[in-house]
Amino acid sequence: MREENSLILRDLPSLNCLRVFEAAARWQSFVRAADELCVTHGAVSRQVRQLELQLGVALFERRNRAVFLTQAGQQLLSGCSEALATLATTLAAVRAQPAVRPLVLSCEPTLAMRWLIPRLPRWQQRAPELPLHLLAAGGAVDFVRTGVDAALRRNDFAWGSDCHAEAVAPELMAAVCAVGASPEQGALLHSLSRPQAWPRWQALGKPLPPCPAQQRFEHFYLSLQAAQAGVGYAQASLYMVVDELRAGRLAAPYGALADGSHYVLLCASGRQQEPALQRLLAWLREEMQLSREQLQGVAGLELPAS
């Protein structure tokens, strides 16, 4: 069927020839067609002649400096008028459709890389008509300057009165290491982006792994990679390591705790009821709840009560 359509399309005259013919046939005048199309009389005559040569039939009778449609010309005019009218209606409908604008979501870099991006295919299945574009960033958001629609953040900073916040899920933290790693032979891994992670862990009643050394990394993501490589023990958001824990690439031998912080979805005040943002919020809540449920099946991982 596709090959047949391709052959038919290759045999069609150019759209420009047909458009010129339709105007000349409608007016039965090359001069008036030229005026309508803003071209010369000679240009109309050449396009019509080219069309006649391609079709192998005369479309006009030329008598006494006037033109008259032949029977073939009458037949082609009927078809052209109908086809061009259909095309014009279709183009008007296409132009009237609103442009598909992607939803721009800003997300903390480590959460984006380790949790959100692996789950994007499920968003695409759920909302194929609503593309989601990601920006990796943390902290406060200037929604006007950046063009961001929403931001997924932890509620550990002041975001200002011009933002609206909706709770997504409570944070869950754990001390993670490579499976089989011994704390006596590793380092306690710190991240400059979450410098209070270990003190907070200890203040909430959890023991520090008895590591003989300390090592600091600039980003949270790097400390997690180092833990997975067997360098030592890192503090981790369980959402960021759920896939590694389930696959047995990481372990959390000291259990987990809720440190009192939450993930929130921020948007500019006044936009929170927009349907696209409501759909995104619902999906993020469902995905974080699913991640928490998946952690229930990880051997040896004790989760705090909901």
From TrEMBL:
Q: What InterPro entries does this protein's entry cite? A: LysR-type_TF_proteobact-type (IPR058163), LysR_HTH_N (IPR000847), LysR_subst-bd (IPR005119), WH-like_DNA-bd_sf (IPR036388), WH_DNA-bd_sf (IPR036390)
Q: Which PROSITE patterns match?
A: HTH_LYSR
Indicate whether Endoplasmic reticulum appears among the record's keywords.
no
Keywords, A to Z, come to: DNA-binding, Transcription, Transcription regulation
In terms of superkingdom, the source organism counts as Bacteria
Gene3D superfamilies per the UniProt record, alphabetical: Periplasmic binding protein-like II, Winged helix-like DNA-binding domain superfamily/Winged helix DNA-binding domain
Annotated Pfam families: HTH_1, LysR_substrate
Question: Any idea where the HTH lysR-type domain is?
Answer: 13-70
Q: Does the keyword Ribonucleoprotein apply?
A: no
User: Which PANTHER family does the protein's record reference?
Assistant: HTH-TYPE TRANSCRIPTIONAL REGULATOR, HTH-TYPE TRANSCRIPTIONAL REGULATOR TRPI
Which protein family is it in? Belongs to the LysR transcriptional regulatory family.
Protein name (record): LysR substrate-binding domain-containing protein
To which species is this protein native?
A: Vogesella oryzagri
